UniProtKB/TrEMBL annotation:
InterPro entries: EamA_dom, EmrE-like. This is Permease of the drug/metabolite transporter (DMT) superfamily. The chain crosses the membrane at residues 12-34, 40-58, 70-91, 97-118, 125-143, 149-170, 182-200, 212-230, 242-261, 267-286. One of its GO terms (cellular component) is membrane. Keywords: Membrane, Transmembrane, Transmembrane helix. The lineage of its organism: Bacteria, Pseudomonadati, Pseudomonadota, Gammaproteobacteria, Oceanospirillales. Residues 18-142, 152-279 form the EamA domain.
Length: 304
């Protein structure tokens, strides 16, 4: 792939592809229909198995070395990813789903501010413009499912957005080091904390067969594969742009629910989805043209 795609294009493809792979998450959680504590425990255990399987397939005999390379930074990545998972699930429990998605859409902005403050990364004007347009588009998508909500739920959603943004920013402090193996630890943290505080009386019960099938598909296959690709995004892209591409999940997830559950979005949601997709496509095409001009030796000031 690296022979015909630029470094940046590989990052766009990985992150965007990962966001699309995890886009049925909300849909399948509805179909599974288990209590939050049970979902979190099974989600943590199964994703940990999926992540370690991917690490072993990719690294073979060097699997332990892949974990050791992450160091203490990897521990921080795992904790931040776990915080984001808990914030997302608990946010949906205590406030409206639309509120959660609107606040999560702020993750690229938070990542941009964190990267500017701690890494001194400066984003071009087009990225700031894209963040603003995608925030607007996401708000239109979830407008009919938003409201005043609960301040506790909104705080959990903010925790999810901040954890996600800080995770991507932290990854940028170790250039060239793949932090995706540490998502295995994150899965174990989520399962352990949920089991300890989730009041699972009588122990963890095996879900009904139909729920188990969807649970395995989501947590053992889709989430490990998708989040491994997303977690590799900061190797190629600024943290804010990784968060920006994750908004594809909101658009695709809305379409999944409409298509399979018949929950038709409001008309304004289609406008919002078109705005998000149009912004990301336009930005990608513009930057592809800039890359071509750079290879042809165009002056640097023309590429800003």
């Amino acid at each position: 792939m690296s022979h015909w795609l630029s470094h940046r294009q590989q990052g766009l493809l990985m992150t965007g592809g990962g966001a699309l792979i995890i886009s049925p998450d909300a849909l399948l959680i509805k179909v599974i229909g288990l209590p939050d504590a049970e979902v979190l425990v099974w989600r943590g255990l199964l994703t940990a198995l999926g992540f370690i399987a991917i690490v072993m397939i990719r690294n073979g005999a060097q699997t332990l070395a892949a974990y050791r390379r992450c160091g203490w930074t990897g521990i921080g990545v795992a904790l931040l990813f776990s915080a984001s998972t808990f914030g997302f699930v608990l946010g949906n429990q205590y406030t409206k789903g639309g509120n959660v998605l609107m606040i999560l859409a702020g993750a690229p902005l938070i990542a941009a501010l964190l990267s500017r403050l701690f890494l001194h990364e400066r984003l071009p004007w087009r990225t700031w413009l894209a963040i603003g347009l995608c925030l607007l588009g996401t708000s239109l998508i979830v407008l009919d499912d938003a409201g005043t909500g609960s301040w506790i739920g909104n705080a959990f959603a903010l925790l999810a957005a901040t954890g996600l943004a800080a995770n991507f920013t932290l990854c940028r402090t170790r250039p060239g080091i793949d932090m995706s193996p540490m998502l295995t630890l994150s899965g174990l943290i989520v399962a352990g904390v949920a089991a300890a505080f989730g009041s699972l009386t009588g122990g963890l019960q095996l879900p009904p067969a139909d729920s188990l099938v969807w649970l395995v598909l989501l947590c053992l296959v889709l989430l490990p594969l998708g989040f491994t690709l997303i977690q590799r995004g900061p190797l190629y892209l600024p943290a804010a742009e990784v968060g920006l591409l994750m908004l594809l999940e909101v658009v695709a997830g809305t379409l999944w629910v409409w298509w399979l559950l018949g929950e038709r979005p409001a008309a304004i949601a289609f406008v919002g989805g078109a705005l998000v997709l149009g912004t990301l496509v336009a930005k990608g095409l513009y930057e592809r043209r800039l890359e071509r001009r750079l290879r042809q030796g165009a002056p640097q000031h023309d590429l800003c």
